[in-house]
């Protein structure tokens, strides 16, 4: 008797007894069967990870999707055609997709499955190459549960961003670009080129606890405009911008916490603070960036056109909050003032300080120390954390 014709109670009992491999093979038989498996999702491991790689061996270039459950299942979408054997057709998200499936036995109990998706292989320069990625993500998450979902891009193939399923909650998405040299991988981060449409997807469509971007837009004059859907939304908890030539500091992307690891210009800082006082950038609750050389003149420029108030955040609350939210050994030469937002009277504390690195870098402290500015908005979550209270879903 076929599974979908059995009584519901019997279906659920049978599905509950199935292990990962059984469910995987059944899910690829039909979309109807896959929906049945979704009635009782299986916890499949700590993470479902997506990785875009660029290697010197052309046969191994591609996007990898791995179920981190003893690495039993790995899916690979190659950039170039490969001489793959045993090509079969599986139903992935209801579509026929050609795959090559290999099984390797590890010991007596563990089997490792490698599935190469050959649909679209050879279309390296087109977006059709990665169309199976979106189907695969929807398919796997329809009947499996994971603690987290990661996407790490060491290169950015054409069409990858558009295939990231927007209905999912990502734990982290990191996008950068690496280069291969005669001496190996270039360890320096390079900015990957994205289109304005791809930026809109990343910053206003996708839900992510941490989004780390080292990207640039081909147009030197382009500035990102916040999408209306993202205003008041909170799809991104922490946004790390390693390059920011495309950022409009008067209207930052919507995120609860924003970090700029590289130096921000004084005029950009002034624009940001004035826009917050005027009522913009309301989604931002925590901000940090490097400010470089610090003098009375530069400090005055930061606050041009802004009324400063004596801070009401106690030293102990301030230190407690910063210690929790940021990684450092100690702060020195601290200056703190408050600014107040027009309209609702919301207060924020602006802190300028010399930040020293964690103790593990003690042997070479001076080159790593930097002048940093923090902005802490007096939101309910931030005030609770400053007082040492428990805050659910902090980041």
From TrEMBL:
It comes from the Eukaryota. This is F-box domain-containing protein. It comes from Caenorhabditis nigoni. The gene is Cnig_chr_I.g3299.
């Amino acid at each position: 008797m076929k599974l979908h014709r059995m009584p519901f109670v019997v279906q659920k009992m049978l599905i509950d007894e199935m292990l990962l491999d059984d469910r995987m093979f059944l899910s690829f038989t039909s979309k109807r069967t896959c929906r049945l498996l979704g009635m009782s999702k299986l916890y499949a491991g700590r993470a479902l990870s997506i990785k875009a790689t660029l290697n010197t061996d052309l046969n191994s270039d591609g996007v990898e999707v791995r179920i981190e459950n003893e690495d039993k299942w790995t899916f690979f979408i190659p950039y170039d055609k490969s001489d793959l054997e045993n090509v079969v057709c599986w139903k992935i998200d209801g579509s026929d997709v050609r795959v090559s499936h290999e099984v390797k036995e590890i010991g007596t109990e563990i089997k490792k499955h490698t599935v190469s998706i050959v649909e679209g292989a050879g279309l390296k320069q087109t977006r059709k190459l990665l169309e199976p990625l979106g189907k695969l993500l929807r398919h796997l998450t329809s009947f499996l549960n994971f603690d987290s979902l990661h996407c790490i891009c060491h290169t950015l193939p054409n069409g990858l961003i558009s295939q990231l399923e927007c209905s999912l909650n990502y734990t982290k998405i990191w996008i950068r670009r690496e280069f291969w040299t005669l001496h190996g991988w270039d360890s320096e981060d390079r900015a990957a080129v994205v289109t304005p449409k791809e930026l809109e997807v990343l910053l206003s469509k996708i839900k992510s606890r941490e989004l780390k971007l080292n990207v640039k837009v081909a147009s030197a004059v382009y500035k990102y405009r916040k999408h209306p859907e993202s205003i008041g939304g909170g799809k991104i908890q922490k946004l790390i911008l390693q390059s920011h030539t495309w950022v409009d500091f008067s209207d930052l992307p919507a995120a609860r916490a924003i970090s700029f690891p590289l130096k921000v210009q004084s005029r950009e800082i002034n624009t940001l603070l004035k826009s917050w006082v005027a009522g913009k950038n309301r989604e931002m609750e925590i901000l940090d960036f490097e400010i470089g050389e610090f003098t009375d003149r530069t400090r005055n420029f930061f606050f041009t056109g802004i009324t400063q108030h004596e801070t009401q955040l106690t030293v102990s609350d301030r230190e407690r909050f910063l210690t929790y939210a940021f990684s450092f050994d100690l702060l020195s030469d601290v200056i703190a003032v408050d600014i107040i937002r027009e309209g609702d009277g919301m207060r924020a504390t602006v802190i300028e300080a010399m930040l020293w690195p964690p103790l593990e870098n003690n042997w070479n402290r001076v080159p790593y120390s930097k002048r940093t500015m923090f902005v802490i908005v007096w939101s309910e979550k931030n005030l609770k954390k400053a007082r040492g209270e428990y805050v659910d879903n902090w980041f």
